[in-house]
Amino acid sequence: MSDTFPQRLPDDRVSVLVVEDEMIIALDVQMMLEDNGYRVLGPAGSVDGALRLLDELCPDVAVLDGNLRGRPIIPVARRLRSLEIPFVLSSAYDIFPFDGSEILEGAENIRKPVSEGRLLAALQRALS
Amino acid sequence: MDLDELYRLLRGSHFQAISIVNTLRDPLVVLDEGFRVLSANPAFYTTFFTSRDETIGTAFADLGNGQWNIPELRLLLEQVIPRSTSVIDYEVRAAFPHIGLRTMLVSAQRLSHPDSGQRILLLTIVDATEKRQADDDKDILIGELNHRIKNLLAVTRAIARRTAVEGRSAEAYREDFLGRFDALSRSLAASTQQTEAELSRLVRAVMEPYLTRGVTLEGEEAITLLPRQAMSLGMILHELATNALKHGALSVSGGLLDISWCLADDGNGHPQVHLFWRESNGPKASPPEATGFGTRLIRFATEVDLKGQAELQYQPEGLVAELTFPR
Fold first, then answer.
1. Residue in A20, A25, A27 to test binding to B, most B beta-carbons within 10 Å
2. What is the spatial distance between Cα B135 and Cα B49, in angstroms, rounded to a whole number?
3. B151, B153, B162: residue with CB nearest A28
4. Mind telling me how many Å the CA of B28 is from chain A's nearest CA?
5. What range(s) does the Response regulatory domain occupy (chain A) (predicted)?
6. Class of the B163-326 domain?
7. pTM for the whole thing?
8. Among A31, B40, B224, B276, which is 20 to 30 Å from B85 by CA?
């Protein structure tokens, strides 16, 4: 995969884009991932911030909150789909009742609060 | 048949009469078997800004600009006539002449004239627009509250997990956890979802457990923060304070801590908050282990959440920190 993505970071850790607007949860998820050998991109706390990050970097996988300060994650999910980057969701919502949420179909929702085991297992599944 | 006649007709049937009279404050129309308007009450004319001339004799489906011309509604009404069923609160959401987009609830019942056997339809129309809007607003509010509660539980859990346990007693862990937990509560109390928080109020609330003779707080009173900014800044202040108490100026008697803040232009015409944290007269400050949750939280909250900078200088006389972030 590193051949197809020249932007990929020059270390062999798997890179994970974290998109989460609640600061302490974002930090917690970042630390979980780093403790387990992942490299974290972001965390981005807004849809625009995540899209800006994706303009420059190409993560291997992403963890997305469903709703960022009242704005659905849809544009980020759409960009990830077009870049063929798999993602998992971490949302307090059980359902995604907003326009365009069909783009989230097939993505696993690990829910909130984030459990380390569930997060790592879901990332493994998304990457395989 | 007009309404007076209808009343006379219904006088003998007390039960039905009461249920109809009770609805009279709402628009009411009487239709014949072909769904033409036989009669309407004053509430109908005032609600829909229409007149008797425009209404009587007109097909129900042609009233106004045709908002009632709904095949499904017509089908329902057609069943009312032969089967003596009723339609209750059929919702019609449409743009009406003069009154705009409205949600109307239509109820229909069949009546038979005892003498002629003529079957008529009695239609009441209730404007439920405001009630629906209020219900929707309430649902949204409850949804937001629900989301906030879940988030808050997730935040609390993250704090519990990230508070250090290695080589520490349960009591020490509990104290650290509750310190963070209380800082979170105090930050939340300083603001609610709807209102802005005042920086000075936030600083006083979060620093309250640490106020001793050596601590001074000074700054502009009228700097407002968004609730999320208040929470981040509250947590940052708590981490700085707890470090000062354990290793810094607040760990010794005679140690001093000055916190001051102001609002200034960032050079591009945007207001920027400056918060200064100056410890002095204490032990020599040295950088804590870089991987600690508290240190990371200070950096992370300032840079990612507040979109600002945290400058931490570990000086011989104590920690000097400056936080800068756009308001």
1. A27
2. 26
3. B162
4. 37
5. 15-127
6. alpha beta
7. 0.74
8. B40
